[in-house]
Write a structure and sequence with these properties.
Signal peptide: 1-19
Number of strands: 4
Shape: globular
Keywords: Signal
Protein name: Beta-lactamase-inhibitor-like, PepSY-like
Strand content: 15-25%
Strand order of the largest sheet: 1-2-3-4
Helix content: 40-55%
């Protein structure tokens, strides 16, 4: 009987260790995804594709593009300010389609 209780205790501890190890992996994967999303390089606003500039002008007619960034996947991060002083960040692909980050 002692062996059965001892074996059960070891099995519980082993499963707990595996679960904690899995959580650590998930956390490190989250960090990698976050780092990938932030891997934008600043570009001149004049370097934005026409489709992206047009999408901003169409959807946010009072917006001024302050800064622009691009990543390896040709996704654009655009920092804009509105007439009322509100600022924001928009993300678009090279065809001017809005994406969520």
């Amino acid at each position: 009987m002692k062996k059965l209780i001892l074996a059960s205790a070891f099995a519980f501890v082993g499963l707990t260790a595996v679960a904690q190890s899995g959580e650590e992996v998930a956390m490190s994967e989250t960090i990698v995804v976050s780092a990938t999303q932030d891997s934008f390089s600043e570009i001149e606003t004049s370097e934005l594709p026409e489709a992206v500039s047009s999408a901003v002008a169409t959807n946010y007619p009072s917006a001024t593009i302050d800064k622009a960034y691009v990543n390896d996947q040709k996704q654009y991060k655009i920092e804009v300010s509105l007439e009322g002083g509100t600022t924001g960040t928009l993300y678009a692909d090279e065809n001017g389609n809005w994406i969520e980050m």
